[in-house]
Design goal:
By secondary structure, this protein is an alpha/beta fold. The chain has six helices and nine strands. One of its GO terms (molecular function) is L-threonylcarbamoyladenylate synthase.
Length: 187
C-alpha cells in the first residue's frame, strides 16, 4: 500500500488522471484544484461540461475547506448515515468554477473507504470522483467491468481492489437547502 500511495500522490501532484476504487464503485479522479486535470477528465470520460462532477474528501475537517460552516444537518447525516452519502452544497468555496454545477453548487462525499481516506488525507485536498465509464454507459460494478480502452487512457490505475468482485451500490445523494431542508435525489 505504501508504494501505491506514493504512486497515487505523484499522479495527482503532476495533474494526472487516476482510476481507483472508492467507497462505492470504481472512479476516475484527479486533483480538484487543477483545472487542466479536471478538463482532461471530462475529455477522457467524454462527459458534457454541464454535467458536474463530485468531490471526495477524507473527513469533515477537509470538508470545511470547501463548505463553511458545514450545516449541522449535514454533519449529523455524515456521522450517522451507514451508506456512502454524497451531499450537494449550495455555496462552496475555494474551488475552481469548472467544478461547480450551473447553479454554483457542488456535490461532496466524506469518503468511508480507509484506502481513499488515507491517500486523500496525504494529498491534503479534495479529489474529483466520477464513475469509471464513458458518459452515458452503465457504471461498472467492479474493476472487471471497466472498458479496457478507458483503462488504457488513464495516467495511473490502482492495483488495490482490482480482484474484488463484490458489487457495491452508488452513494445516496441528498441536497441540503438554505433552511437545511433535505431533498433526496438518489435514495
Amino acid at each position: 500500500m505504501k508504494d501505491e500511495k506514493a504512486a497515487i500522490l505523484a499522479c495527482l501532484q503532476k495533474g494526472g488522471s487516476l482510476l481507483y476504487p472508492t467507497d462505492t464503485i470504481w472512479g476516475l479522479g484527479c486533483d480538484a484544484h487543477n483545472v487542466a486535470a479536471v478538463e482532461q477528465l471530462y475529455q477522457l470520460k467524454q462527459r458534457p461540461a454541464e454535467k458536474s462532477l463530485i468531490l471526495l474528501v477524507s473527513d469533515i475537517e477537509m470538508l470545511k475547506q470547501y463548505v463553511f460552516p458545514v450545516p449541522p444537518k449535514a454533519a449529523k447525516l455524515i456521522s450517522f448515515h451507514e451508506r456512502p452519502l454524497t451531499i450537494i452544497y449550495d455555496q462552496p468555496k475555494n474551488l475552481p468554477k469548472e467544478l461547480l454545477a450551473a447553479d454554483g453548487s457542488i456535490a461532496i462525499r466524506v469518503c468511508q473507504s480507509a484506502f481513499c481516506q488515507d491517500f486523500i488525507r496525504a494529498f491534503g485536498r479534495a479529489v474529483v470522483s466520477t464513475s469509471a465509464n464513458y458518459s452515458g454507459q452503465t457504471s461498472p460494478a467492479h474493476f472487471g467491468e471497466i472498458e479496457p480502452s478507458l483503462i488504457a487512457k488513464v495516467d495511473y490505475v490502482c492495483e488495490y481492489g482490482q480482484d474484488d468482485r463484490q458489487e457495491v451500490a452508488p452513494s445516496t445523494i441528498v441536497r441540503i437547502g438554505p433552511k437545511e431542508e433535505l431533498e433526496f435525489i438518489r435514495p
